[in-house]
Amino acid sequence: MEPNGVVDAGLAACLDYTTKFCTERHHKMNDVTVPSDVPLLFTPIKLRSVVSRNRIVSSPMCQYLSDDGGPEDWQLVNFGRFAMGGCGIVFGEETAVEARGRKTHHCAGIYKDSHIPAYRRITDFIKSMGAVPAIQLGHCGRRASQHGPLKDRAALTEAERPWQGISPSPLPPTPDGAIPRQMDLSDIRATIAAWREAVQRSVDAGYDICEIHGAHGYLIHQFLSPLSNLRTDAYGGSLENRMRYALEVVEAVREVWPQDRPLWFRTSAVEGPGGVWGIEETLALVRELKLRGVDMVDCSSGGIALGGEGGLSAVPRVPGFQAGYSREIRHVTGMPTVAVGMISTAQHAEALLRDGHADLIALARGLMDDPNWPLHAARELGCADPLALVHAREAQRLRQLEHHHSDYPPGSTIEVPFTPEEKVAYSWETGIARRRI
């Protein structure tokens, strides 16, 4: 297939690849006939003009290893390995649209033109491995000026160059957190302008999918939630007003993001313990997102919480704990969705797709544990040639390994040569040929 898969010919290439990938009975997907025995997890999907070879998404994961926002070798290797392992779509990490929109000094950003070549290096490699590069753009708002998770997100001291976060209201993110500066209308306009500029840089950096981060207590979520937004102007109060900032960001992004490329939105379908933003508010938001050209909703949860009694309870961390939100959004609004959250087995991922609960499956920590998860899932689901997922250099060696296994079946009589005249019996039980007792 073509490495970038961003033109109509890419779908034909993916379908040709899919036909070789599994067996030959057929059904309809994306208005094109594809093999029915192909697991849905491994059918291509076309979003506007962008074609993904399968339905597996490497979810955004913050790395806290950027240099003034720019990616380093770590990001190239870390995200590149997910493309090598067979993912169809590979996100990097939440990437700030302006410097003050980072949580830490080491968070990713794309707020300077000098960042573009470093990101282009990553996207070029991802495309060369047959995957689609995707960027998640965000702004942390009041979650600014802290350390990363290895230091328990502690606030920066005066000696560590702290800065003041911004938010719709001057409320700290945690009871002992720093108080952000309340945004005025000029701040709102400035941040929306930063979104536009970051999107334009993302185009130049070679990304084919853009996701707006509206979840996890980031700035957009801070406007959406009545727990963090106490404004009395046009950006606060009613649900319609609290959605205004999110929708203005979407409109600005969609205006400059190419029309032939898909726009995604990550939402916290429900807030954390004690929260009040729930699925009904999310459905109202998604309906408005759909009208403004959003193509996919990435269904997450949490990020703003009061704790204590009342409001929402904590979301149990069980396999597929957010998949129900994906199903609800998809069925009620007709918006395509991504299911994410402890989906660790191929059978679970396939069932969520087959039952119509999601259009794509995203993994984060599961891919950290097993970067070749797509390859192993293809084997588990019975695809005829799982090694078609990986680069030919790796596939050739792995085919040799498969041949070795078939040439010497377990339990067969094997002798290992030690000299021209001497062979020693191999033990399948101990995994060794022992010449001397």
What does this molecule look like?
With 437 residues, this protein is of the alpha/beta class. It has one domain: Aldolase class I (TIM Barrel), CATH 3.20.20. It contains 13 helices and 17 strands. The strands form five sheets. The protein has an eight-stranded parallel beta barrel, surrounded by seven helices. The protein has a three-stranded antiparallel sheet with strand order 15-16-17, with no helix packed on it. Strands 1-2 form a two-stranded antiparallel sheet. The chain is elongated.
Counting structural domains, the number is 1
Task: Provide the structure class.
Answer: alpha/beta
Q: What spatial form do the alpha-carbon principal axes imply?
A: elongated
Oligomer: single chain
Helix and strand arrangement:
Blueprint: H1 8-21, E1 26-29, E2 32-35, E3 45-47, E4 50-52, E5 56-58, H2 73-84, E6 89-96, H3 116-128, E7 132-138, E8 166-167, E9 181-182, H4 185-204, E10 209-214, H5 219-224, H6 239-242, H7 244-256, E11 263-268, H8 279-291, E12 296-300, H9 323-333, E13 337-340, H10 346-354, E14 360-363, H11 365-369, H12 373-380, H13 392-407, E15 415-417, E16 423-427, E17 432-433
Parallel strand pairs: 5-6, 5-14, 6-7, 7-10, 8-9, 10-11, 11-12, 12-13, 13-14
Antiparallel strand pairs: 1-2, 3-4, 15-16, 16-17
Helix pairs in contact: 2-3, 4-7, 8-9
